Amino acid sequence: MSDTDHALLVIDVQNDFCPGGALAVPEGDQIVPGINALMQNIPCVILTQDWHPSDHASFASEHPGAAAYDMVDMPYGPQVLWPDHCIQGSAGAVFHPDLEIDPADLIIRKGFRRAIDSYSAFFENDQTTPTGLEGYLRTRGIKRLTLAGLATDFCVAFSALDAAGLGFDVTVQMDLCRAIDLNGSLDKATNAMRAAGVRLV
What we know:
The chain has about 200 residues and is α/β, with parallel strands linked by helices. Helices cover about 20% and strands about 20% of the residues.
């Protein structure tokens, strides 16, 4: 395989997921230099960006009496209720200021439909509504994906599992990810990725 079939997928390295943000992932900012360096070695770079309306259904503030990190049942299945984060046009939704965005060939925005959350870069949480990323990768001839970003146990893992399910060769650069680890979610995610044939390096 040539390098031209390889893409780097950088997941949600945004201010709200970094220290000081509304849904801060511990040490989320520490992965930025390594991701920037990795961009120099992979010919196709794609960034994802959480991009929620202010009244998104996954926000705890939209559910009277609920608290952040409570679980609720949505029409598409169980859903964690999150603090308001990555609201369209807000400072929190902007990429981390040290992340190099100029090398990106494509930016995929997700979570913009009010009624459904979207962890994966490929499908919303109903696991059927596509983002369009698969079609882009196919038409570019991309077969191999390396993933990095935030958070390991949610958006990175969901993206990796969907990519593997779609037949891509998937590697997750674990040292360039950080996790929320909500009630054992990191172990669950890493076990699921390994079981799906995703390489964790």
